[in-house]
Amino acid sequence: MKELTPKKIVTELNRYIIGQESAKKAVAVAIRNRYRRSLLPADLIDEFTPKNIILIGPTGVGKTEIARRIAKLVKAPFIKVEATKFTEVGYVGRDVESMVRDLVNTSIRNVQQEKMKEVYAEAEKNANKIILDTLVPSKKVKETLKTPFDIFMKPTPPTTPTQYELEGDAEKEKSKKEKREALSKELEAGLLEDTIIEIEVDDDGSKTIGVMQGMNNDSMSFNMNDILGDFLPQKKKKKSVKISEARKILINQEAQKLIDQDQVNEQGVKDAEQNGIIFIDEIDKIIGNGNNHGPDVSREGVQRDILPIVEGSTVNTKYGPIKTDFILFIGAGAFHVSKISDMIPELQGRFPISVHLDSLTEEDFIQILTHTENSVIKQYQELIRTEDVNLIFAEDAVKYIAKIAYLQNEEDENIGARRLHTVMEKLLEEISFYASDYEQDDFTIDMNYVERVFNISDKRDNYQKYLL
Which segments show compositional bias classed as Basic and acidic residues (predicted)? Predict the structure, then answer.
């Protein structure tokens, strides 16, 4: 975080998102302020709380992408929730506190993945040993199951092996050792990846034992394994898979054994409290238009339920209580009907920063198609390249695609950059269908091809009839 100044954060966001400079700056400053807070004296840290943000703009202009990309950039726990999923307390629906529990689960999962990466080499070594033991079982003493009757019987004294039996066992062990060494080399060389073996895996069904209390699944459910712990042994089941797949499963199981889950949970809860980001989409849908009757009453109820979470409270989770005081909340909505001023005053105060995002222009569409890291054109080029066909987009074709997307947004529903996907799907429908049959390596899409697909000339002639 020391190196991620607001300017550098915006530069990174520019790789994926075109325009919307004011929104990028607002979020970058909010993230940087977290780092600045960590450098404050201990007596001031708790006094500084994040300044929550509301992003206002039509769909598809980058609201969610800005929040998601910045969370990934700083490796912060991040979840996106739909405000319309929540209902007022007392009604059947999702509890607003569930968003905090989801954040904690995401944070713990992130920490667990990082810890498992640290022990990956050791886990892989253990997994390969298990695979080798499966291919050539090591010598084990067979134990017979004793019955209650056997307990009272006089034990049979062990017999002394003869010299012949000892020589035979030594020969078998030598042969087994040589076989293990040969198979070990073949495993390292990747020659046995498609060999089918039978391994023991954890039975996930054994983890579903639970007890429900009350009406709400999110807040009142708990797992019996969380309470009884090691008193309930982990069930195993046998599974026949290829060695390549078995290695992935076993590495995952071995890595989980090597990490301290209690430490993971503790770190996950701390990260969620101090660095968590909750993105509340469609927040305008829980805001009325000033009326105090009908559905607006219920919407106001949801706002009042969200208020203590955003304001700062303690939420109980199965990993312990978590404080929401320092979680960054980013709201987003189109606000076509309602306004920020229609929000209840208390909640308005907890979102002091509001930023307007602009609708995308034709030039923005061109930039999105050509200058972003994950541009739609690059995605489709890589997709068609799997059929050994190289898609080439002429410059005039790219500009025409951008124009079509812009005009369709103007004439129909404005869905922002998502319109590019609908345009590209129609444009490449025939190519995608016949790609596997093409003999040529390159396929060039020019302006004439785009016009032919969208029948631009025919539509222009039809419009001409109605013009004076």
Answer: 169-180
Question: Which tokens belong to 252?
Answer: 């995952």
Task: Give all strands (DSSP E) within 216-349, no chain letters.
Answer: 221-223, 236-242, 277-281, 314-317, 320-323, 328-333
First to last CA, the chain: 63
The Cβ of residue 161 has, within 10 Å, a number of other Cβ atoms equal to 11
Residue-wise pLDDT for 305-334, tens only, equals 899 999 889 999 999 899 999 999 999 998
* Entry field: residues in the chain: 468
Tokens of 249: 């499963």
- Pairwise CA distance, residues 240 & 237, whole Å: 10
The reported pTM is 0.77
pLDDT mean across residues, the chain: 80
Task: List beta partners, residue 391.
Answer: 443
Other C-beta atoms closer than 10 Å to the C-beta of 396 total 12
Task: Give the integer Cα–Cα distance in Å for 10 and 385.
Answer: 32
Domains with residue ranges and CATH for the chain: 6-114+266-356 (3.40.50.300), 120-139+160-258 (no CATH), 362-464 (1.10.8.60)
Pairwise CA distance, residues 66 & 55, whole Å:
10
Residue 335 region, left (φ>0) first, then alpha (ψ -120 to 50), else beta?
A: left
Cα 295 to Cα 451: distance, rounded to the nearest angstrom: 47
